[in-house]
Specification:
The structure holds three protein chains of three kinds. In chain A, helix 10 crosses helix 15, helix 10 crosses helix 17 and helix 15 runs antiparallel to helix 17. Chain A is mainly α. The model of chain A has no long low-confidence stretch (mean pLDDT 92). In chain A, 80% of the residues lie in helices and 0% in strands. In chain A, 61% of the residues are buried. Chain A has one domain: Amino acid/polyamine transporter I. Chain B is an alpha+beta fold. Chain B has a single domain, classed as PRC-barrel domain (SH3 type barrels, Roll). Chain B has three helices and eight strands, in the order βαββββαβββα. A four-stranded mixed β-sheet of chain B has the order 3-2-8-7, with no helix packed on it. In chain B, strands 4-5-6 form a three-stranded antiparallel β-sheet. In chain B, a hairpin with a 5-residue loop joins strand 2 and strand 3. The model of chain B has no long low-confidence stretch (mean pLDDT 90). Chain C is globular, with a radius of gyration of 15 Å. Chain C has one helix and six strands. The longest helix of chain C has 10 residues. Chain C is mostly beta strands. The two termini of chain C are 28 Å apart. In chain C, a hairpin with a 5-residue loop joins strand 1 and strand 2. The chains are: A mainly alpha, B alpha+beta, C mainly beta. At the B-C interface, strand 1, helix 1, strand 4, helix 2 and strand 7 of B face strand 2, strand 3 and strand 5 of C. Strand 1 of chain B pairs antiparallel with strand 2 of chain C, so a sheet runs across the interface.
Chain lengths: 410, 139, 114
């Protein structure tokens, strides 16, 4: 139990990054349309987020500076403001989707209309952000979110054609599909952007400061990253594989969480379905917490307001006001009837565009001895970091054109 | 006429004279930095600096300007978009309160006593304190 | 006066040559032992012929990694120089004029212990 709470921050961050409502549906979509031929993107995305979360966590532990403070300091007022506007808007879109996702998960569990769950979900998220201690928040949602491991178990229970899966993994497109290359690359970029969404590093580095990590906790930071994010990546990959095994051969289109859960229901019956739904609720709730807190963190760190769940709300008034307003806005948008899943597709593409402005300052500060003392990046880290920076820039440039050309992957 | 300024090679530039004291480049090391009080509570970010007044048309070569205050608030908007707010709208932290400069600016007075924290106090008293549990300390 | 009054001004030599834009202002901070940061006096301004803003200051400090980025930013900031306060003739209206005989110094910062 102690071991799990030690990596809870990493696991929770990863849950918000890899199995939030957008990923829960998109992973199933990808599996049902492309088989395993896009899994390599998830692997690369996992490596990328590990690298940058590790850097931002290290910077936070050694210098005490959270990521958005660094973005403001290094990019200067204009560029940082552009980043803030983009990040905040994306956060708001994502928050709308996550609260909607909680409602959709609860609908699966209870058959009660999601519209009735939405205000309940928004209020519950606020209550936890307002009152629940950070360590409890991360331990509980992290642990419950791991229920999604039922998807990994389901893979084996389904007795798949391993050779077929293996060939798809090696980029042999499955026989039943006929997707165009542009659609393939659109989904590749969407998956990459979803794996490396900036709010993951905002949350992780701010969480590092919430946990009062100091240089002596660097090992713990490393373990959090290298245990938490790969687990998140594996959960996401499991959903893809399940969809490839069950949905792809039958040509079942994924339009909701119901199809995402279908393979588990087939493999493990009602029990499996219950566990999967529990995982959905926990994962979307955890993601909603992460995105709500990120909204507060980014704005407060940019303007220099006091922030943090380790403070009483009265000591971080504007921080909490921002989060309350964000939840109200998200609820308002949801009640107009938008489909939370469609909202996610937009927010993922836009966050792919905003990636470079977030990751460049992190890479630079991680090398600056005035912040890091002796703990600057090594050569290997810089080498891989620069490669990923190049990938991020390419994804950022290609994201919107591909979205337009493919009609958002339809 | 739009010929771009010439780029001078390093050998064309003179070696700078030695200066006494700690050398700080404002845009590089002061602007956009976080400002903290002794309890590690964030106060604001440095959006601009107020300097002693100087006659712009005939500056005195022996009287360079000094930093009077850190500025926040409306100056941020004008720094990004141009223009200049009237001095009555400056939100100031006296330079005399700056105790230490590292990767952030450390003050020697608490946020409570500073004028600049009025907005935070306003939200605390008018909004947060009205919600049950607002004063509950989580640790 | 505020710092933004100086940043972004186009700098001209006394003979009319356009030198670049003011991207930063350099201060010397000193004080007695109980208040070492008491006085921050402006030494001069940093002018850059290429960039409108300094962007991370690689060209002035010792930080040189990651190597590729450092080289790119140094390249972007190349040719920038320091002008002492006493060599400034006037400023305003988007422009700064230097005195005749103004010396252009290297902007390199000595590594600080502070």
């Amino acid at each position: 139990m102690k071991a799990i709470s030690a990596v809870a921050l990493g696991v929770l961050t990863a849950i918000g990054g890899f199995v939030d409502i957008g990923d829960l549906v998109t992973s199933a979509v990808v599996g049902s349309r492309f088989g395993l031929t896009l899994v390599w993107v998830l692997v690369i995305g996992t490596i990328g987020i590990c690298l940058f979360a590790q850097m931002s966590g290290r910077v936070a532990a050694v210098s005490g500076r959270a990521t958005f403070e660094i973005i403001r300091e290094r990019l200067g007022a204009r560029l940082a403001l552009a980043n803030l506007s983009a990040s905040f808007l994306i956060n708001l879109l994502t928050l709308t989707a996550e609260v909607g996702g909680i409602a959709l998960s609860l609908q699966l569990a209870t058959s009660i209309s999601p519209v009735l769950w939405m205000p309940v979900a928004a209020f519950a998220v606020w209550l936890v952000v307002w009152r629940v201690k950070f360590s409890i928040l991360e331990n509980v949602t992290g642990l419950l979110g791991l229920a999604l491991v039922v998807f990994a178990v389901a893979i084996f229970l389904l007795h798949p054609d391993w050779l077929q899966l293996g060939s798809q993994l090696l980029l042999q497109p499955p026989a039943q599909t006929s997707e165009s290359p542009t659609t393939y690359w659109y989904f590749a970029i969407a998956l990459f952007g979803a794996a490396m969404t900036p709010y993951e590093v905002f949350f992780f580095s701010s969480g590092a400061i919430e946990e009062h990590w100091k240089p002596k906790d660097l090992t713990q930071s490393r373990v959090n990253v290298f245990v938490g994010f790969p687990i998140g990546g594996l959960l996401s990959i499991s959903i893809v594989v399940c969809a490839a095994i069950v949905l792809l051969p039958k040509g079942i289109a994924v339009t909701s969480l119901y199809q995402t859960a279908l393979p588990v229901a087939q493999a493990a019956g009602t029990i499996g379905l219950i566990i999967a739904i529990l995982g959905f609720v926990a994962a979307t709730f955890g993601a909603a917490l992460e995105v709500t807190l990120s909204s507060g963190y980014t704005l407060a760190q940019f303007f220099g307001w006091s922030w943090g769940k380790y403070r009483a709300p009265s000591q971080a008034a504007r921080f909490h006001v921002v989060m309350i307003l964000s939840l109200v806005a998200a609820l308002g948008v949801l009640l107009t009837g938008v489909d939370p899943v469609q909202v996610t597709e937009f927010s993922v593409v836009f966050s792919a565009v905003a990636l470079p402005l977030t990751y460049l300052p992190i890479l630079i500060v991680a090398n600056d001895p005035r912040y890091m003392g002796k703990r600057v990046n090594g050569r290997a880290t810089n080498f891989v970091g620069l490669i990923f920076l190049a990938l991020i820039v390419v994804a950022s440039i290609a994201a919107i054109p591909l979205m337009i050309v493919t009609g958002a992957g339809s | 006429m739009s010929r771009r300024p010439r780029i001078r090679r390093p050998d064309e530039l003179a070696a700078p004279p030695r200066f006494a004291g700690r050398i700080v480049d404002a845009e590089l090391e002061l602007l956009d930095r976080q400002v903290f009080d002794p309890d590690s509570v964030q106060v604001t970010t440095v959006d601009d600096l107020e300097l002693t007044d100087v006659d712009a048309a005939h500056p005195d070569p022996d009287a360079p300007p000094e930093i009077l205050c850190l500025l926040s608030g409306p100056v941020f908007g004008t720094r990004v978009f141009g223009g200049r707010p009237p001095e009555s709208r400056f939100e100031r932290v006296d330079w005399a309160h700056v105790a230490r400069l590292t990767t952030a600016v450390a003050l020697d007075v608490t946020a409570e006593v500073l004028d600049i924290s009025w907005l935070e106090r306003w939200f605390r008293d008018r909004v947060i304190a009205r919600i049950p549990g607002g004063r509950h300390d989580p640790e | 006066m505020i710092l933004s009054d100086l940043l972004g001004l186009r700098a001209y030599a006394a003979d009319g040559e356009e030198l670049g834009r003011v991207v930063d202002a350099r201060f010397a901070i000193a004080g007695p032992e109980d208040h070492p940061l008491r006085t921050a006096r402006m030494l001069g301004i940093i002018v850059s012929p290429r960039s409108h803003t300094s962007f991370m200051g690689y060209e002035r400090t010792d930080v040189n990694s990651p190597a590729l980025l450092a080289r790119w930013f140094e390249h972007r900031g190349r040719g920038s120089f320091l002008v002492l306060w006493k060599d400034i003739a006037s400023f305003g209206g988007g422009r700064m004029l230097l005195r005749p005989g103004a010396v252009l110094y290297s902007p390199k910062l000595e590594p600080q212990d502070g």
